[in-house]
Specification:
This protein has about 475 residues and is of the alpha/beta class. It has 15 helices and 21 strands. It has a six-stranded parallel beta sheet, sandwiched between helices. A five-stranded mixed beta barrel has the order 17-18-19-21-20. The protein has a three-stranded parallel beta sheet with strand order 7-10-13, sandwiched between helices. Strand 11 and strand 12 form a beta hairpin. About 40% of the residues are buried. The model has no long low-confidence stretch (mean pLDDT about 95). Bound molecules: S-adenosylmethionine and iron/sulfur cluster. Iron/sulfur cluster binds near residues 173 and 214.
Amino acid sequence: MNEVRFHLKNFGCQMNKLDSGLLAGALSSRGFVQTDSAADADVVIINTCSVRQHAEDRVLSHLGHLKHLKKTRPQTLVAVIGCMAQRLGEQLIKHDAVDIVAGPGQLAQIPAMIEEALENRQSRLAVSKHIRHPDSIEHQQTLDEFEMQYDSDENHIKSQAYIRAMRGCNNFCTYCIVPYVRGPEISRPPQMILEQARKLSDAGIRQITLLGQNVNAYRYEQGDKIWTLADLLEKISDIDAVRWVRFITSHPGKFDDSILQVMADLPKVCPYLHIPAQSGSDRILKAMNRGYTSAHYMALIDKARATVPEIAVAGDFIVGFPGEMDEDFAATADLASRVRYKNCFIFQYSPRAGTRAEQKLPDDIPAEIKQRRNAQLLELVNTIAEQDNKRFVGRTLEVLVEGPSKMARRNTVENEEQLQLIGRTAHDYIVVFNGPQTLAGEFVHVKIMDASALTLFGELVWGKN
Ligand code: SAM
Ligand code: SF4
């Protein structure tokens, strides 16, 4: 076979980024070559997200472009993978542009499916028939082995890698599609996670992020021992070449103190918690089936701050959930003011077919009110973050450099040694400063000169590492 070029476009969360990285690695190891442009690819793969309608609409519009592209390049193979593939499999395979549809549970089969389709030009649909049934042991092993082959890939930021600690979710928040597209919650065997961490660190990875929808719920029974997230963090910290280890996303429901304790005790465990509250109103939290109250949430944040001084807290909120009155929104704003988040992702409620909220609760908050609440909450969170970020001015922080900023990548630069670079601190603050591209993947020190709500601006301090 001649060289086969693939283009991979990712929508959605870190889980999807990880899946895309795994797939890109697997295809490259089979001799496929990755390309930046769909227009000169033999295979276009779209990894999709179903969390909000907007995410699905973007994929559908992208498929419209690909349909057009296929008029001039009919041999281009299009594969739609990920959450939307699982949710809308039958419908998507009928789309004029689409040749392959495969859900998240079929990730390991995709390279072979692509090779077959390139040979026989037949379309293929592979999704889980009973998504809430736990996969067979063999199927789980296949997925685990697929993950093990991954070292580092070009899609990733240099020196950083994700490792999946858990698949799926059993929480059934009433608005959320994830349990219906990613299946039941499963903790991966600790030995596999640790072996992956060692392999990645041998390949030059310095920061590892453990992933799970509810990653603090990680539990794996082995004889008398029950492995927890705190155990994983401790063991990964023991790997010499790993400098930082972090985890996302945490659920406030059952958050074990041991996680805060390892954060306080082990310098490599980053003092950063992404712990969405979703709402500050107990009535809405109940309707969302979140399993906690705003008082419980606030007590957890207070405990985190008492155990890990200067811990950075990030969150998510949904505004315009069915029945959200002005006083519910006021409770959300009040919670956000008390927590003082580093940053928040704010989403307008989007009904997802098949979820309990969609079936039982009318989407009764008008779009203008959702937009207004979104803008108000964002402004509040940003104002607080900007005030808090000013404390960094004059301080020198350690930063893991990601690479040139978006601006530097867009513009032609005159001085290659003075590119605008972007990086993050252990607390996950975004830092922008000038320096040479060769620093990508390195730990450097940056003196902070100014701060906005989302970014710290600084100057590189040479020779401090
Ligand atoms: N597992 C994580 C948790 O429970 O916090 C988050 C997973 S979800 C992929 C990411 C975020 O999308 C959620 O925290 C929530 O704020 C938002 N989200 C999920 N379903 C949504 C919906 N139907 N409408 C609007 N936002 C939604
Ligand atoms: Fe969705 Fe809730 Fe599971 Fe997060 S915990 S993935 S919001 S069901």
